[in-house]
Amino acid sequence: MKKSLYLLFLSLVACNPSKEEIDLLVHNATIYQVDEAFSVAQAMAIHKGEILDFGQFEDLNANYTFKEKLDAENQIIFPGFIDAHGHLYNYGLQLQYVDLYHTKSFDELVERIIKFQEENQKEYIIGRGWDQNLWEDASFPTNDTLNQLFPDTPISLSRVDGHALLCNQAALDLAGIDSTMEVKNGALLQEDGKLTGVIIDGPMPLVFDTYPELSDDEAKQALLSAEAKCLEYGLTCVADAGLPKRIIDLIDNLQSSNQMQLRMYAMISNSKENLDHYLNQPPIHKEKLVVKGVKVYADGALGSRGAALKSPYADRENHFGNMVIDLEEFQELARRISTTEFQMNTHAIGDSANSVVLNTYAKFLENKPNRRWRVEHAQVMDADEYALFSKNIIPSVQPTHAISDMHWAEERLGKERIKHAYAYQNLLEHAGILALGTDFPIEGIDPLMTFFTAVARQDENFSPAEGFQKQNAISREDAIKGMTIWAAYANFQEDFIGSLEIGKKADFIILDQDLMEVADEEILNTKVISTYIDGEKVNGSSD
Question: Of 156, 175, 208, which closes a domain?
Fold first, then answer.
């Protein structure tokens, strides 16, 4: 009898070997995997920062032992959000500058500058965010008042789109800018032969070059303060659209020393120094840092009438905007990048700029699959050129731009041309993919606003009631893909992030509402409960 019991025991042991011990079991959740089938799971097993398994809690609990269990309390899990086009470093700097966003008048702009300077006593005052289209007087401001109030302190104020500056005379003098200068690829606005202080596109770097340079410690603090905001809002990866080598090296240092958890896809700025350094070596692929894109500007912005259009602006006779790069230079740059493994990511707003970019891409990518060159913004299109988009020429767009611009964009473009502006559904139908971002700090950083504006085509006040050009809203599933797996694909990161699948990184967020089910008017009330990177919690609630 004892022998029989012993043999039975051995048999049971053989059938039930010791369970594998792993790190984390997440359960009691609705987990949107955002895989090819858009699967939904209830629990997942995580080990060494990667997803090991999915299933019912009972099955996973029977198969593994866990160092930790996370009860999601019936909340919603998505892959960590990816911003396909932001400016992390600039956002961090913006937190140290005068905040001019949503000013309702020039007088309010001045009041904010005065208050900022009283509190900070800067030797050079830098600000960003003004938009004259939101003021009762929608004409460009002049610097007369700033000259009177701050005759000796340079002031440089970026327009919301980053394609125009308002500078006082002290800043103009420091940059060596006067009315006799020959201007290329931009404008120095004048009245009665005198500079107004407004600079558009081309000459702006002359001013930027005079900004006080931040120390490495100050630059790192800017990056870390921006990272904290990203994690708070459920972003686990950001594509930074244009960085110098120095800042990329600082990011690498912060990540390598575990001071920075956020994943980064860095596009290098189009400078000789950057190009000569990076294009002569393979792209960088590290655990949390990928450097594989080159950020290029084709034209300016619509709000400052710098976007390059095929026909004149509807609200300015014989004005077409302007390219900010010579066509020959653009072609040569495309040729050079095409001989490397790097991706070309070009800012293109107007239909003329988009035409140049798309046709140049098509020329240099012929017989070169899987290069994934990107058109950043793809804002105003010629209807005949949608067909040039594909998974090899990817539209990278920012849904909040449509809502920010909808109050005045038709004035710039006219009733017919506006129909092919911010046309995200049209772009998606032709490309088969749509990478979504915010362009923060030009827009807000919250990815939930990206989701809401993409599907509802309304502002936070639910205006217009019928939605702005609602025919170009995209579905909720496509919006989620654009913020996760499609953004990862546009960043060459889809093999390890962008969806919750076995073998991929355990980057996920927990929300208190189901974005696939909640009513439109409740989307922006959704809260990010927590954010995880590599299976480790990296933030708390965004409350």
Answer: 208
